[in-house]
Every structure is written in structure tokens, then in C-alpha cells.
Design brief:
about 240 residues, alpha+beta
Length: about 240
């Protein structure tokens, strides 16, 4: 399946899901995203300030069909179970105070679904943590212009000129990573190069690896890119191209 940036604005985020393409395989009993990359956020990644900013804007909602695409089919019923903190008799409760429930949200800026998974040990003083699963958008919103790239704990973010934070647009099969020579750093470098080449205007995911600028690729492959929290402005990316 191919796409152009103009094809990505499928719906208004206030009415449905933006930048999302879905396919179903009825005989196999599941539905999945065909273009949007799944983003798995582990509990240890939730401590970053950018994640907390993103989490703070999520809106709790009732489970719907889009949330069902983010969990295994046998786990779908758990989307409708309350947390043990809300109901001690929840089907997701374990031995009274433990919990393996799931909660559902949506991102009001992009309309994309989010599923949070609870893992709580029985008793007090033990593990009590949440992890999250969502989809990356295929592009920023139609009137958004990229301004700054953020990275921390293997999470990748974009901030627009208006200050809106987004998970970095990503296409399925083009996962991002840093710190070594391989597909992940190449995919990230190609996307950042595209942003620099277009002054932040073309934010559609899926740039070809061959488009990566050598200086930007050298940065994504370097140990410097893998150290701590990193930020690059649009002007920083353009300066890399001139070095």
C-alpha cells in the first residue's frame, strides 16, 4: 500500500481517528494497523518529562474497536474490567489487591487510541506500575510545522511550532533507534533529513533510507545520540547538513 502526505488526513480528530489506516483479516480473527507503527512504552520509560507531558493530556474513555487492535484477542475482555483500585472484585484483581487490568484513553490532539496496562503485586510495597501501547501518527496535523526533536529512553518525539508534542510520526516496519549502524538509526536519520530539507513542512513518515544526510546519519549512529535526553531544533538539523 502506498500513500502521499495529502492522503493521510482521514478524519478530524474531534470526530474520529486522524492519520490511521486499518486492515482486517476476518478468517484470522483480528484487526491490525497496516501503516501506523505500534509504540510500546514500558514502565521504566514513563519517567521522562516528555512522556509525562503526553500522558497528562490523554483523555480516559470507554474501550472501542480501535483499542481492541492494541491487545491480543484473548486480552480484549480485560479492556472492560475495572482496576482493583476501583473495584476489589474486578475480574482483573489478583488475590485481593493485585491487578492486571487495562485502561483505555485517546490522545485529543491526534485522536489515536491508547491502552494502559496495570501490573500490581499483591500486598503493599511491591510493584505497582503502568505500561502503555499506542500507535504513532503517520504525519503531524495538516497545519503543523515541525520545530524540535526530542529523545529520551528510546522514545522519540516531535514538537511543533505551536508547541504541541507528538510521538514522532513513524511507519510500520520503519522503527527508530540510535547508537549503532543499522536500520533503526537509518530510518530516524532519513526522517530527520526530510524535515530539514522541507523546513519542517513535510512530516509524513516513511522516508527512504537513501535520503538520510551523512551528517545526520552519523549523529543517529553515534554514542552521543544514545546518551541521556537529546534535543535537536530544526535549525540544528539544518546546521548538520551544512557541516
Amino acid at each position: 500500500m502506498t500513500f502521499q502526505p495529502r492522503d493521510l488526513n482521514l478524519t478530524d480528530p474531534e470526530k474520529g481517528y486522524l492519520n490511521f489506516v486499518l486492515y482486517t483479516e476476518p478468517r484470522r480473527g483480528h484487526a491490525s494497523a497496516s501503516l501506523n507503527a505500534t509504540v510500546e512504552i514500558e514502565a521504566q520509560q514513563t519517567v521522562t518529562p516528555h512522556f509525562q507531558e503526553w500522558l497528562g493530556r490523554l483523555v480516559r474513555c470507554e474501550p472501542n474497536a480501535m483499542h481492541c487492535t492494541l491487545v491480543e484477542p484473548r486480552k480484549i475482555p480485560a479492556l472492560f474490567h475495572p482496576c482493583v483500585m476501583e473495584d476489589k472484585d474486578s475480574p482483573s484483581a489478583i488475590a485481593g489487591s493485585g491487578c492486571t487490568c487495562r485502561q483505555t484513553f485517546y490522545d485529543p490532539e491526534f485522536g489515536l487510541p491508547v491502552v494502559a496496562e496495570h501490573f500490581k503485586h499483591v500486598g503493599t510495597g511491591g510493584t505497582d506500575q503502568w505500561s502503555y501501547t499506542t500507535f504513532a501518527p503517520l504525519a503531524l496535523r495538516p497545519d503543523d510545522v515541525f520545530n524540535r526533536f526530542h529523545m529520551g529512553r528510546s522514545l522519540f518525539w516531535a514538537r511543533t511550532e505551536k508547541g504541541v508534542l507528538s510521538i514522532l510520526p513513524q511507519r510500520e516496519g520503519r522503527g527508530y533507534s540510535v547508537g549503532y549502524s543499522g536500520g533503526g538509526p537509518s530510518a530516524l536519520a532519513a526522517y530527520l533529513t526530510q524535515l530539514a530539507d522541507t523546513d519542517g513542512q513535510n512530516t509524513a513518515a516513511g522516508a527512504s533510507y537513501e535520503e538520510a544526510h551523512p551528517a545526520i546519519l552519523a549523529w543517529t549512529q553515534s554514542s552521543a545520540a544514545d546518551r541521556g535526553t537529546n534535543e535537536l531544533s530544526l535549525s540544528d538539523l539544518k546546521a548538520m547538513q551544512q557541516s
